[in-house]
């Protein structure tokens, strides 16, 4: 039995699907749900650094099912809605998303979507009832669905023979849940570019259906959180594309070198051609680190810390803070997982990063764990601000929800992420 | 039978003949509202909109020292994350209250629960909320999942009510019973009136008046208190940003009033039934409407003279703002509930502007008066959101400013129109006039930003759609 959650940081399956596809230019979601489902997400996403999209918020088409459709079925209402959406809104792809109500009533969203596909429109469907999981499941589900169904409405793009670059897809970065998602995708692109690697970001700025049609041309899929594994497996099965799961898509030079080493094991890249780039990155990072030296010693930056957030995010911070700043990680509290919290098994690597690893979704229980650990610094979402304050600890926001924050180009990966963290965290610790 | 005697509140459509879809001339809409059986309309294409659940959560999130249990999937309470942010900001910035112990829960229903039922889970969560927080009240909010599943929230609550010493109130929001989101706050008002306010109106405080609002922000609350303090009166502002104690004190007031009549109706009526008269007046926005509102209050409390002096004094402070005519020659579009729209139209015209179109989220018998004051040949859209129709309207009409409660700046600026969102400002009473005029000046300074944004904006709406008539997708419902 799933546990109740106090002050949760979760949307649902439907929300995960919406926040993913609205970050692909030209994609129009068609919700087959009760009226407020789309708006719940719109209100929640604003504290997750997703602000602008091709279609968002009040603009998202929705069948807005009412009592009549609940009693008599809503299939014909959906047919009408799909047909008219195509007439009102321009889209490169329409995605029907059926929510709790229609899945319980048993509306046939698959056939209704197929009807317009038969008429030559580009459309797919994804069954997204909220009771089947949170937004992480929604991301995983919609990405798999796009991989499976897109080729049936669009031909895959053939490899451009003139482009000899190595191509990679980035999987596992979830818009909104990763509050730095935009900057992170850009930084990965920036770091891998000198190696002759062309990064397919798939989501965010200038990413369209074409990017998804090109997924099959990748030489490697890079999975940066557990939520990208299923998609990578699928792509391997369909296109024989190898993939790597990066345990720590970290910040700072060491993590970047490890990442490159891991890529090099799978595909032939000439690391030496980028030697200058990595050397410059390391130098710049060290230069940044040097600037806080006096503060580092004078203000006792070697804090004891509790980190709260998605697994991949917490790993990133734990590694960086111990490696470079000598902080002591008392506990990592992971908030993205499926199933019972007591049955989760952290990896060896994760265990090596902190004294204690917990899996929790309930904000009150998370606060209690923080209180027991009694750290000097709390890295988490805005929901952890209160407990940090009551303990007299510093608080720095790294995970969703992030109140009072607008994050567009900042990141928490790579060289830039490391420098940004040094800058921002120092500012917090000097308060 | 009185409104609070009913166990469940009847949906707004059935109570008030509410319509949520219409586009046409005001005159035809007025005629429509006169017939006994209203011609209900539906959209055959629609965009996401507020439902009962989200409106109820918006309101409940502001009540202090309570626990809200959302009985549904995790996503059904996702908006609370955003509401908490908004409220915390208001508390911090406007010093609303020093601490709020309110919290919220999701029963986190999964697939198994949709088959087997979630009663047991609900019981556990209510007990947990009680033991962990000792809140003053627990509100249990329904969602479409439990409604379809026929989970009996009331029996669980009834049983626990005997064990626990605090009121537990069921808010029966299915998300699909009513097409009008406002039905959600109606249900909350019904629950509050029925279970929190004693039906005996005794021990009356002759200087205390209930001000009922489900949407006001804290800045408006401050302005209300300023005015009432000056008049030597006490405003008991409920239920938004109120404590349970304040809500319970409602039966001791001498009368009740609203800022925006249509949203307060259920509680105004309920309180009237226990002997607290409701004073009705147009929304107090703009000097004529403010005077009317205050005069109605004065008449009831027999303090007309004080009120008259007060009005004269306060009006002096805003005269220069109105005389500056900041909207002279500007074309303004208004998207607000009818009772607010009526007052805002008057204010916009007082400030020299021309109202070129109006959108209201819903219309029903409670709006007859508001509609009367609008020009009969003017076009009016009824719908919450439904931005595709607005895109159509904007493409056919020249509009400079768009005034609305909700923040849809992204959409509006893409159309080359400058939004003036008033949701997080106080536009009521005298301070409100100053704020509104300042907002117009700010909006004028947003010209270059808006132009920059709209220059290469990609609008998702098909050209063929914007050429069609605006009401193309609005049809009469076939029963």
Describe the overall structure:
The complex is a heterodimer of chains A (431) and B (479). Chain A has three domains: 13-153, Rossmann fold; 166-280, 3-Layer(aba) Sandwich (Rossmann fold), CATH 3.40.50.1980; 283-429, Nitrogenase molybdenum iron protein domain (Rossmann fold, 3-Layer(aba) Sandwich). In chain A, 44% of the residues lie in helices and 14% in strands. Chain A contains 18 helices and 13 strands. Chain A has helices at residues 13-21, 37-45, 67-72, 75-88, 100-105, 109-118, 135-153, 181-192, 209-213, 229-239, 253-266, 275-291, 293-298, 311-325, 348-351, 363-373, 385-391, 414-429; strands at 5-6, 27-32, 93-98, 123-127, 166-171, 197-200, 220-223, 243-245, 304-309, 328-334, 356-359, 377-380, 394-397. Chain A has a five-stranded parallel beta sheet with strand order 11-10-9-12-13, sandwiched between helices. A four-stranded parallel beta sheet of chain A has the order 6-5-7-8, with helices on both faces. Chain A has a three-stranded parallel beta sheet with strand order 2-3-4, with helices on both faces. In chain A, strand 9, helix 14 (311-325) and strand 10 form a beta-alpha-beta unit. With 479 residues, chain B is α/β, with parallel strands linked by helices. Chain B folds into three domains: 1-18 and 200-280, Nitrogenase molybdenum iron protein domain (Rossmann fold, 3-Layer(aba) Sandwich), CATH 3.40.50.1980; 52-175, Rossmann fold (3-Layer(aba) Sandwich), CATH 3.40.50; 324-476, Rossmann fold (3-Layer(aba) Sandwich), CATH 3.40.50.1980. In chain B, 46% of the residues lie in helices and 15% in strands. Chain B is built from 21 helices and 16 strands. The model of chain B has no long low-confidence stretch (mean pLDDT 93). Classes of the chains: A alpha/beta (431), B alpha/beta (479). Chains A and B meet through strand 1, helix 1, helix 2, helix 3 and helix 4 of A and helix 3, helix 4, strand 4, helix 5 and helix 6 of B.
């Amino acid at each position: 039995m799933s546990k109740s959650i106090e002050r949760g940081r979760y949307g649902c399956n439907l929300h995960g699907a919406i926040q993913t596809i609205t970050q692909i230019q030209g994609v129009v979601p068609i919700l087959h749900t009760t009226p407020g489902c789309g708006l719940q997400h719109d209100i929640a996403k604003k504290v997750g650094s997703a602000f602008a999209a091709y279609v968002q918020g009040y603009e998202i088409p929705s069948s807005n099912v009412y009592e009549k459709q609940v009693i008599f079925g809503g299939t014909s209402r959906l047919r009408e809605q799909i047909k008219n959406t195509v007439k009102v809104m321009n889209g490169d792809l329409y995605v029907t998303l059926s929510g709790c109500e229609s899945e319980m009533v048993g509306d046939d969203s698959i056939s209704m979507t197929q009807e317009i596909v038969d008429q030559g429109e580009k459309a797919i469907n994804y069954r997204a009832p909220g009771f089947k999981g949170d937004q992480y499941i929604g991301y995983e589900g919609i990405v798999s669905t796009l991989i499976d169904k897109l080729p049936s409405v669009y031909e895959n793009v053939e490899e451009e023979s003139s482009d000899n670059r190595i191509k990679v897809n980035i999987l596992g970065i979830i818009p909104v849940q990763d509050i730095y998602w935009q900057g992170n995708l850009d930084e990965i692109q920036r770091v891998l570019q000198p190696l002759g690697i062309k990064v397919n970001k798939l989501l965010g700025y200038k990413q369209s259906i074409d990017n998804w049609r090109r997924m099959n041309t990748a030489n490697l899929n890079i999975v940066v959180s557990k939520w990208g594994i299923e998609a990578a497996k699928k792509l391997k099965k369909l296109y024989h594309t190898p993939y790597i799961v990066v345990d720590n898509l970290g910040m700072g030079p060491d993590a970047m070198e490890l990442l490159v080493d891991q890529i090099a094991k799978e595909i032939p890249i000439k690391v030496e051609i980028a030697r200058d780039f990595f050397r410059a990155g390391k130098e710049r990072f060290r230069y940044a680190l040097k600037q806080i030296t006096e503060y580092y010693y004078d203000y006792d930056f070697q804090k004891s810390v509790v980190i709260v957030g998605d697994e991949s995010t917490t790993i990133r911070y734990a590694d960086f803070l111990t490696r470079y700043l000598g902080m002591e990680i008392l506990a990592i509290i992971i908030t993205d997982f499926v199933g019972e919290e007591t049955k989760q098994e952290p990896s060896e690597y994760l265990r090596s990063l902190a004294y204690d690893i917990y899996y929790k979704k309930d904000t009150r229980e998370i606060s209690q764990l923080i209180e027991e650990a009694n750290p000097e610094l709390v890295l988490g979402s805005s929901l952890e601000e209160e407990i940090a304050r009551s303990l007299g600890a510093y608080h720095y926001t790294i995970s969703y929800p992030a109140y009072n924050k607008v994050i567009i180009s900042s990141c928490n990966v790579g060289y830039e992420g490391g420098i940004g963290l040094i800058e921002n965290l120092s500012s917090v610790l000097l308060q | 039978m009185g409104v609070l005697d009913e166990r469940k509140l009847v949906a707004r459509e059935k109570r008030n003949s509410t319509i949520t879809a219409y586009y046409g001339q005001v005159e035809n809409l007025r005629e429509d509202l006169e017939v006994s059986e209203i011609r209900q309309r539906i959209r055959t294409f629609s965009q996401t909109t507020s439902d009962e659940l989200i409106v109820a959560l918006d309101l409940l999130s502001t009540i202090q020292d309570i626990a809200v249990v959302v009985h549904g999937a995790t996503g059904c309470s996702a908006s609370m994350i955003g509401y908490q942010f908004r409220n915390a900001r208001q508390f911090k910035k406007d010093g609303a209250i020093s601490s709020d112990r309110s919290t919220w829960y999701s029963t986190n229903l999964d697939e198994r629960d949709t088959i087997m039922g979630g009663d047991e889970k609900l019981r556990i969560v209510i007990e947990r909320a009680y033991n962990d927080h000792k809140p003053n009240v627990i509100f249990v909010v329904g969602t479409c999942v439990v409604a379809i599943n026929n989970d009996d929230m009331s029996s669980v609550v009834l049983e626990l009510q005997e064990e626990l010493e605090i009121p537990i109130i069921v808010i029966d929001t299915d998300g699909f019973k009513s097409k009008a989101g406002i039905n959600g706050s109606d249900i909350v008002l019904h629950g509050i009136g029925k279970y929190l306010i004693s039906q005996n109106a005794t021990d009356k405080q002759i200087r205390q008046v209930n001000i009922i609002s489900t949407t006001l922000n804290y800045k408006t609350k401050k302005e209300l208190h300023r005015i009432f303090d000056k008049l030597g009166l006490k405003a008991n502002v409920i239920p938004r940003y109120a404590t349970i104690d304040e809500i319970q004190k409602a039966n001791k007031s001498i009368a009740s009033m609203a800022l925006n009549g249509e949203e307060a109706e259920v509680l105004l009526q309920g309180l009237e039934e226990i002997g607290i008269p409701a004073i009705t007046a147009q929304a107090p926005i703009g000097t004529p409407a403010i005077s009317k509102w205050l005069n109605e209050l004065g008449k009831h409390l027999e303090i007309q003279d004080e009120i008259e002096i007060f009005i004269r004094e306060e009006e002096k402070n805003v005269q220069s703002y109105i005389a500056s005519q900041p909207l002279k020659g500007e074309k303004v579009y208004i998207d607000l509930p009818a009772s607010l729209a009526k007052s805002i139209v008057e204010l916009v015209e007082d400030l020299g502007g021309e109202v070129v179109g109006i959108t209201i989220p819903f219309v029903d018998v409670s709006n007859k008066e508001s509609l009367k004051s609008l020009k009969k040949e003017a076009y009016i859209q009824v719908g919450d959101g439904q931005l595709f129709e607005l895109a159509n309207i904007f493409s056919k009409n020249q509009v400079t400013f768009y005034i609305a409660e909700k923040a849809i700046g992204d959409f509006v600026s893409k159309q080359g129109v400058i939004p003036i969102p008033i949701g997080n400002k106080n536009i009521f009473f005298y301070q409100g006039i100053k704020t509104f005029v300042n907002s117009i000046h700010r909006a004028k300074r947003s010209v270059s930003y808006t132009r920059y944004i709209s220059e290469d904006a990609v609008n998702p709406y098909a050209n063929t759609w914007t050429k069609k008539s605006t009401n193309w997708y609005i049809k009469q419902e076939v029963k």
